[in-house]
Amino acid sequence: MAEVKKSFPINGMHCASCVRVTERALKKTPGVKDAVVNLATAKASVTYDADNCTPEQLAESIAKTGYTLELEERSEATMQEEKKKELQTLRNKVVVSLGLGLLILWGSFPGLMNTAPAFLHNFWLQLLLATPVQFWAGSEFYRATIPALKHRTANMDTLVALGTTVAYIYSAFVTFFPNVVMNLGIEAMPYFDVAVIVIGLILLGRYFEAKAKMGTSSAIKKLIGLQAKTARVVRGDKEIDIPIDQVVLNDIIRVRPGEKIPVDGEILEGESSIDESMITGESIPVDKAKGDTVVGATMNKSGTFTYKARKIGSDTMLAQIIKLVEEAQGSKAPIQRLADLISSYFVPIVIMLAFLTFGVWYVFGPDLAFLFALLNTVAVLIIACPCAMGLATPTAIMVGTGKGAEHGILIKDAESLEVAHKINTVVFDKTGTLTKGKPEVTDIIPMSVILNLFQDPNKMPKKMLNQAESPAAQRATWIQHDKEEVLQLAASIEKGSEHSLAEAIVNYAQEHKIILDPVAKFQAIAGHGVEGLIGKQKIFFGNRRLMDREKIDYKEVTEQISKLESEGKTVMMLAADSRLAGLVAVADTVKDTAKDGVAALKKIGIEVVMITGDNARTANAIAKKLGIDRVLADVLPDQKEAEVRKLQAEGKKVAMVGDGINDAPALAAADIGIAMGTGTDVAIEAADITLINKDLRSVASAITLSKKTMRTIKLNLFWAFGYNIILIPVAMGALYPFFGILLNPIFASVAMASSSISVVSNSLLLRRVKI
Question: Residue range 115-142: average pLDDT?
C-alpha cells in the first residue's frame, strides 16, 4: 500500500457548509484514508492509498458537489497572481452591482424616488439594469447552487441565490403582469433594488474578506520572498549565474558580500559573517569558516566564500519551514470540527426557517401579507451567515502559525496550537536543551593554587621545587607543574581517549595553542580514567577510583573537589609520578537563554521541571543556577517517557522540551512535544512544535501565542454564532408584534457582509501581538 498525503486547491468554497460538503465527498472516495478541508486556505489535505485512488478520482468526487479540485500543483507566486486577478474581477462586479443598484434604489425607494429623474421610475428600465447584475455579477452564486441542489446539498450560495432570485422573479412578474398583481389587492411595486443591492453588498463583503484572507497568509509570502533568485556556480574554471532551481547537489557556489546564500551547504573555502535572523530570529550575525554549514536564504554580510550545495529544492531548510507552516495552516483544530459540524446543519435549517417565515406571515400577517411574507423570507435567507462560522477558526490559526514562524517557532498543526494553551508544566531535558550539550573545560587548578603557596598560578616554577625541611617545603613535594603544564599533560594523555570529556580537554588545549606531547603505553581504564607515559613521567588522569587504585593521596583536595561538584562540574585529577599535580574540571555549560527562558515560563504561571541522568548533586546545582525548583535526577534515557506519564497522572498538562533521539518517546508521550531546531531529525519528527531559533525563551512565547490565538478563536466563534442566533429571529419579524420593526433585506445583506469581515479582521489583530 502506497500511502500519499497531498494538498489540492479547491475553488468555489465560501462557507463552513462548503467545507463540510467537500470534506464528506473526499472521505467517501474509495481509497481515501483522511481528508481535511480548510476554508481560509481554500485547500484540501488528503491522505489516500495511491494504489486504489488517483487525484483524478478526487477531482471527480468534488466536481459532483459543485466545486472544482485543481490537480496541477501551482507555485505560491502563480496562486497569488491568480488571486489578484480574481480580486480585480470581483471588484468590477461590486462596482457595477452597487452602481446600478443605487440607480434602481433612487428610482424606486419611497422618499428617494420623488427626487429621481422620471425615467428611473420605469419598471422596464429597472428590469434592464437588474438583469446583468442578477445573472452576471451573481453568476457565481448559481454556479455553486445548481450542482449542489442536484446532489441534495446546500450552502451559503444557495441562500443568496434563493433570496435574490425570489426578489428578482417577483419583480419581473410585477413588471410583465402588473394587472394580475393589482387584482390580488397588492400594489404593483417591484423590488429589483433588493435583489441587486443584496448581490452587490455580498460581493463587496467577499471582496474585503478575500483581501483580508490574503493578509492572513502573509507569513508564507514573506518566507517565499526570502529565497535567492540566482546562484553563482563554479563550473570548470568559470563562474556563471544560474536560476536557483538549476542548482544541483554538490555544485560549488561562490557567495560575495551582501548576497543571499542560494541553498543549504558546507563552506569549502573562505570566512564570513552571516545574518541568520530569518531562521533564528537572532539579529547578531554568526561567524562562519571552513567546514561550517550555511542555510539557504540567509544573508552574507562581509566575507567571500565558496561552499558545496548539500540540500537543494524541497530539501532545504527554508523549503521545509514553508511546507511545515503550510501544513499547519491547512490543518484543523478540534474546536473547528465542532463549528463545522454545526454549520453543516445550518443551511438546511435556515431554508426551513425561511419557508416557515413565509407561511406564518402569509397566514397571520397584516394587509399586504404576501409582500411582508416575501420580504421577510428574503431577509432570512440573506442574513444567515455560515461563512463567519467557517472562517472563525482557520483565519486565526493561519495568522497564529504564521506569527510563530516569523519568530522561529514552527507549529506542526492546528491541534498543537490549541492544546498548547492548556499547558501548566514544562519539562526540560538537561543535556543539549538547557545546556549546550558539549562539555567545556571550566577550571584548571595546579596543586600550588589549592595549597595557597602561590597567588598567581601563572608565575609558578615550572619544575619541582627544591626540597627543604620546613612544613611548607614538605608540602612542596605535591607541586610539580603550572597551569599550562597541567593542561598540556591532561590533553596529551586524553588525546587517545574517545570519551566526550576527553574531547573537551583536547579541544581546549588546541584552542590555547598548547603543543601536545607523544604518549607511550596508553591505556583507558573503564570507569576510572586513563594512564600512560609522557617522557619518563608516569601519568594518571581520572576520578577518585583511579587515585585510590594507584594509592595516590588526594585528601588535601577533597574539599576543593566537593566545591566544584556542587557547582555541577565533573572533576578529574592529574597525577605525575604518583604525586598529585592538579585538578581539571569540565562542565556542560548552560545555554545563554536558559535562565531567561525558565523565568519567562514562571512569570506566566508554568511549573518548570528538569529531567536528567546526572546525579542529584550535579543536577540540583544546575537547577539552582537556572531557578528550577523541581528536578528529576538519575533518570535513564528509557525512563524519561515514564516520568512524563507520572506527571500527567498528577493531573498536569505537560510539555516536554528535548533535542536527542532518546527524547523522542517522551516528546511523543507529552501533551505537547517541543524540539530544539539544533536537535536530531527523530526528535523534531516526534515533536509538535520546533524551535528553529534555538531560543529557550520561545517556549514561553509559544504558549503565550497559543493562549492569544485561542482567545481570538473563541471571540470569533462567539461573534459568528451570536450574530446568527440574534439576527435570524429579527429577520423573521420577531420584533414586529412588539415594536413594529422589520429588517429590510438590504440591511440584512450589510449585516451579513459585516459579520465575515469582522471575524477575519479580528484574526488579523493577532499579527500585532507581542510574543
Answer: 92
Task: Give yes or no for a contact between 202 and 15, defined as CB atoms under 8 angstroms apart.
Answer: no
Give which of 606, 218, 516, 216 is closest to 395, Cα–Cα.
216
Q: For residues 424 and 340, is the Cβ–Cβ distance under 8 A?
A: no
Given pLDDT bands bounded at 50, 70 and 90, which one contains residue 58?
A: very high
589, 443 Cβ separation under 8 angstroms: no
Please tell me which residue in 251, 275, 429, 688 is annotated as part of the active site.
Answer: 429
Top pLDDT among 441 and 279 is at: 441
Give me 278's grid cell: 530569518
Contacts of 548 (CB under 8 A, 6+ apart): none
The residue written with cell numbers 411574507 in the block is: 373
User: Looking at residue 467, what is its pLDDT?
Assistant: 34
Query: Which helix (H) or strand (E) covers residue 695, if one does?
Result: none
Inter-residue contact 139 to 160 (CB < 8 Å): no
pLDDT, tens only, 543-578:
888 999 999 988 888 888 888 888 888 889 999 888
Of 108-112, 518-522, 740-744, the least confident: 108-112
Rounded to whole angstroms, the Cα distance separating 409 from 402 reads: 9
Under a CB-based contact definition with an 8 Å cutoff, are residues 410 and 404 in contact?
Answer: yes
Per residue in 569-597, pLDDT (tens digit) is 888 999 988 889 899 999 888 888 999 99
Among 247-251, 395-399, 691-695, top mean pLDDT goes to 247-251
User: Do the beta carbons of residue 576 and residue 539 sit within 8 Å?
Assistant: yes
Cβ-based neighbours of 69, under 8 Å, separated by 6 or more: 8, 9, 10, 44, 55, 58, 59, 61, 62, 63
List of long-range contacts for 143-147, beta carbons under 8 Å, 24+ apart: 143/12, 143/66, 144/12, 144/14, 144/18, 144/66, 144/67, 145/66, 146/66, 147/63, 147/64, 147/65, 147/66, 147/67
Q: If we measure between CA atoms, which residue out of 425, 421, 416 comes closest to residue 652?
A: 425
367: annotated active-site residue? no
From start to end of 604-683, where are the E strands?
Answer: 607-611, 630-632, 654-658, 672-676
Least confident interval from 227-236, 267-276, 536-545, 672-681:
672-681
Are the C-beta atoms of residues 94 and 204 closer than 8 Å to each other?
yes
User: Quick one: what percent of the chain has pLDDT higher than 70?
Assistant: 89
Q: Are 671 and 655 in contact (CB under 8 A)?
A: yes
Rounded to the nearest integer, the mean pLDDT of the chain is 84
Residue 465 has a pLDDT of 34
Most confident of 377-386, 387-396, 663-672: 663-672
Beta bridge partners of 749: none
C-alpha cell at 298: 540567509
Q: Give Cβ neighbours of residue 611 (< 8 Å, ≥ 6 apart).
A: 427, 428, 429, 430, 632, 635, 640, 643, 666
Assigned C-alpha cell, 575: 597525577
Place of cell 414586529: 736
Answer for the pair 669, 687: CB distance below 8 angstroms, yes or no: no
Dihedral sign from CA coordinates of 567, 572, 573, 576: negative
For residue 272, which of 282, 257, 284 has the smallest C-alpha distance? 257
Give the chain's largest Cα–Cα span. 137
Number of C-alpha atoms within 13 angstroms, CB side, residue 693? 25
Q: Is 321 helix (H, G, I), strand (E, B) or coil?
A: helix
pLDDT of residue 452: 57
pLDDT for 352 beyond 70: yes
Calpha distance 381→658 (Å, rounded): 53
* Confidence at residue 252, expressed as pLDDT on a 0 to 100 scale: 95
- Per-residue pLDDT for 464 more than 70? no
Buried b (16+ CB within 10 A) or exposed e, 201-219: bbbbbbbbbbebbebbbbb
